[in-house]
């Protein structure tokens, strides 16, 4: 039998470190708990008044704090301990889960408690997203970052796959059981966060605390440092905007109930399978990325997988056969995972540590906006054009946008191997001139 050291050596290299392994536990536990809570809240909220608008209102109130607080939260992450900021978000989520247990125990007959707690979930997300984005470089050496980020993505997608099913099963036993389990998972995540140690500190003069004594004008520029850095770094701006537009126009998740009921005629079980298909594809692609680094040039690969994402949506929109529809969704999830891995790895490797939190906060706004606005765009387009034409047109537009990106962002389209990327020089007071070799600013 293998001893503990033998088992550890069989793990991916990034997972062989204790602190990154704890971080993976945090990501997995968080995503499981958040998905369980989303399923339980959705069922209870719809049961109160049977208004679909109430579900949209929950989503809006969860996104609003991210939109309003993400930039200040990113500044906070760059000024104080990122580990403690993440622990604070866990403490808030534990309190929210406890309050949801209380609301459920008293009958869950009113909408307003769920609306108020949705705001709390949004605040926790605004804190946790930039903190988790900024922590990985302090937990593993730089050469292991691509592997570490792929593992983080797999842990996140595993939670997305398993969380709804587990949440639905526990909710069937009792709503309080689902929320209590989520609370326990958040507690596990918090303990893991507090147990982590940042083994790879940032260079002197960079990272949290840099520039804290700047005058008011400098503080405002520091607050917007993530926006300034992304705007001055074409590789990052192009990658983030491409992800935004691909999800905004190409996503079809919001219309899956229509396909399940009116086009594929699969019923609620089929709807659940359809919703899981993209995440299953993402997990499969993530495992391949964990086993080996991306073998091709990042820029052309990114354009190719976004084109493939659009094409898979066209196939899904035209399909009337459940097997073909599931295959298209699995492919969409797989290529989207590759796209996300390229984007997150590029952002992590190019961004200097002194603005990681603020860049992560801008990502949070863009990702949240693409998901929420994408659902709104899908519903509006379906109402105007019809469900099938809306999905097919969205997939086609995604392909056109990806091909146009080769001309609009040539630095991104020609990006080489991810391992060749280096942090760009950036400070809170000024940005240096761009360097075509990195697609951003001169490397440090």
Count of beta strands? 2
Helix and strand pattern: HHHHHHHHHHHHHHHHHEE
Strand content: under 5%
Question: Could you estimate the helical fraction of the residues in percent?
Answer: over 70%
| Intertermini distance | 47 Å
| Overall geometric form | globular
Which CATH architecture of the largest domain would you pick?
A: Up-down Bundle
Oligomer: single chain
Count of helical regions? 17
What's the CATH topology label of the largest domain?
Answer: Growth Hormone, Chain: A
Sheet with most strands: strand arrangement: 1-2
What can be said about the biggest beta sheet? 2 strands, antiparallel
Which CATH first-tier class of the largest domain would you pick?
Mainly Alpha
Write the topology of this structure.
Blueprint: H1 4-10, H2 18-49, H3 52-77, H4 82-105, H5 112-135, H6 145-173, H7 175-195, H8 216-223, H9 225-231, H10 234-250, H11 256-263, H12 267-291, H13 298-318, H14 322-350, H15 356-385, H16 387-408, H17 410-413, E1 434-435, E2 440-441
Antiparallel strand pairs: 1-2
Helix pairs in contact: 2-3, 2-6, 2-7, 3-5, 3-15, 4-5, 4-7, 5-15, 6-7, 6-12, 6-14, 9-15, 10-13, 10-14, 10-15, 10-16, 11-12, 12-14, 13-14, 13-16, 15-16
How does this structure look, described?
The protein has helices at residues 4-10, 18-49, 52-77, 82-105, 112-135, 145-173, 175-195, 216-223, 225-231, 234-250, 256-263, 267-291, 298-318, 322-350, 356-385, 387-408, 410-413; strands at 434-435, 440-441. With 444 residues, it is an all-alpha fold. The chain folds into two domains: 8-198, Growth Hormone, Chain: A, CATH 1.20.1250.20; 225-444, Growth Hormone, Chain: A, CATH 1.20.1250. A two-stranded antiparallel sheet has the order 1-2. Strand 1 and strand 2 (440-441) form a beta hairpin. The radius of gyration is 21 Å and the shape is globular. The termini are far apart.
